[in-house]
Each structure stands twice: as structure tokens, then as C-alpha cells.
Amino acid sequence: MRAETAEVTDMTHYTQHCSWSRIRRDLLLLVMSGFLAACSVTPGTIVQTPTTAKPVPADRTAAPNGAIYRAAAYKPLFEDRRARFIGDTLTIQITENTSAGKQGAGSSSRSGKVAASVDPTTGLPFNLKNPISIGANSSLSNEEKAASSSSNNFSGTISVTVVDVLENGNLVVSGEKQIAFDRGAEFVRFSGVVNPDTISLGNNVPSTKVADARIEYRTNSQLDAAQVVSILARFFLSLSPL
Fold this sequence. Notes:
This protein is an alpha+beta fold. It has 3 domains: 2-41 and 226-239; 75-100 and 150-220, no CATH class; 102-147, no CATH class. The chain has 2 helices and 6 strands, in the order H-E-E-E-E-E-E-H. A 6-stranded mixed β-sheet has the order 5-1-2-3-4-6, with no helix packed on it. It is flat, with a radius of gyration of 39 Å.
């Protein structure tokens, strides 16, 4: 009878151990799935315009061409080919440097004084040789100082596409560049409005001359392997009975 009881007890412990192992395995799979899903999500963007555009189909209507000037085959004689139509490309030279600082200070003070005295001639039922004086002083002061500063530097190049031409001739440009590495990808996005007069040789434009510029650099590899292992180790150590 005792042998059967011991056997039942051993089977119970074995079943509990198997259940606990299964729970830990399921939790591990769940956590790893969450981390993998988080690492594969494309980060959000502040660029609202499309990042590319197709050229407008050419008008197939036969244009009336003269003997010398041909409007259908227009090409400037004294300048290189500049971006001016939807679908043309530009190269943006990103050179952004920003810095900001703020300081603040404040102080306040407050003081008070209370004094009272009892003279022998106040009509008390007993005589006082000397007057009784009572006094109290209080003071409060407060001083606060705060300072903050920030500095950012962003440099690089990105090719963008003309997605729209405004009525005044300005070009709405937008583009995206993705760089994939072993364990993640980097995203560089740009959009803004370009004045054709600022386009230099080779269709280059500095980012400092782009209006309504939206520049961003993001990555989807937010956690490296060491951080993931450390988080998992702390999680399972908190559940382990040992």
C-alpha cells in the first residue's frame, strides 16, 4: 500500500514538473514571437507625401513644328538637363545642424515678525516687577535654477522624385532610401518643396534650401541580441522556484 502511495506521489510530482516545463516553453515561444514581431515592424514616418511618382504620359498629339524650333524635342542649349517635370529625380545633400538652449532661474523670499509684551500696569491681580515680552520671527526663501540644451547633426545624401509641380513652378519632392543590414534595416525619408532656381549642376539641392522639409532617419532593429537575452533571463529567473 505504501509503495502504491509513493508511486502515485512520484507520478504527481512528475506531472507537475512536466506541466511547469510546458508552461515555461509556451511562455518562451510567446515572448520570442513578440520580440520578433516587434523587430520586423516598419517604423512610422512623418513624411506625408508619396515617396515616388511616375512621369506624366507624353502627349501623343502631333505638335506643329517649325523649320528651326521644334517644341516636341525641346532641349536647352546653354544648360544641362534640370528636373522640372513629375518623375524627374533630384539629389538632396542633407546638411542639418541644429542646437538649442534654455535657461531659467527664479527666487522668492518671505519674512515675518510677531512681538507682544505685558506691562505691569495692565490691571493684573498680581504685581509684575518687569514687563513680559514675547516675540517670534520667521523667514522663508526659495531659489530655483534650470538649464537645458540639445544639439543634432544629420548629414548624408538621398535621391528624391518630383511628385508634383505647383502653379508657381516649385517642385514637390519626396523619396525614401532603405539600407538592410544583417539584423535590421535603416530608413531615410525626405520630402519638401524645391525652388528650381536652387538646383545646381548635377541636379543637386542642399537640404537647407528646401521648404517644408521633413527629414527622418529610423531603424527597425530596436533590440540587439544581448538586450533580448538579458530581458528573457530576468523574466524566467523571476518565475523560477530556485
